[in-house]
């Protein structure tokens, strides 16, 4: 079983999060007792990754019901608290999607909401395993090499989902088939999800990998050191434009120039058919201090401000494949995301 980022803890009957800001050095869990605590955990990326945010959003509705019962909130006050969870981060469609999967059951009571939230988690992990199989089949049919060398950006692993992972789920599937040679993991400034979290997952499972600075990705690809790039996503627009961690579009540009596949792995819950194109995706702007400092130590001069968009958009024309549990779409050929998927 892969590392668990999120669970509904039977011992406390509360949402329990693995605090990803403490990894890889410490394995610390947060018992979420209030909506404020969950919103804060999302804001500081203690829980992060689009599918994981969907699960946290769904389970957070139970947290809102419990806090409302303790504090005597009206039905409207409970819904206002649920809305705060859904709005805690703007780019990943999964957060609001996860809340929406269960909020309509509130009038059926806590048990119904918790059962539905748990189902969101189970279905996410199942989707990740299915898309990993489909993605490995797609890649192995196109890359003529005994074992693949893969570049990935950020963390789209078990820590970013309910389990197994999306981009790293595909990596795990390749490794299980003995078709993986090496993973180049971009460190992913400024919060180092790659160096801290992707490396943590791969090291735990003995999957061969190296960590590289983000600035090395393009030359690693252009030097012919990788056979493909596989990344996750936070929101996929109807036309196949893909929002993902800042730095992803640079990887896609290099893949197109080098003629290697740029693959996006994501559950269908990340596809947002209501968003026509990447131009309509809100990009989260985070504090510039995350760029000008690291681990509390300022690295830029006092007079320098940080510019910190957390995501970028890769145009559909640069995306070789979007792999979901419903199948593979090839946006670079003009294919669009459709409900039948
Ligand atoms: C499997 S989706 C993971 C996705 O989420 C990450 O963003 P963040 O760490 O800020 O939540 C990044 O975009 C990953 O690709």
TrEMBL record:
Keywords: Amino-acid biosynthesis, Isomerase, Methionine biosynthesis
EC supergroup of this enzyme: isomerase
Marked site (Transition state stabilizer) residue numbers: 154
Domain of life: Bacteria
EC number: 5.3.1.23
Active site: 234 (proton donor)
Family statement drawn from the similarity comment of this UniProt entry: Belongs to the EIF-2B alpha/beta/delta subunits family. MtnA subfamily.
Function: Catalyzes the interconversion of methylthioribose-1-phosphate (MTR-1-P) into methylthioribulose-1-phosphate (MTRu-1-P).
Protein name: Methylthioribose-1-phosphate isomerase
Source species: Phycicoccus elongatus Lp2
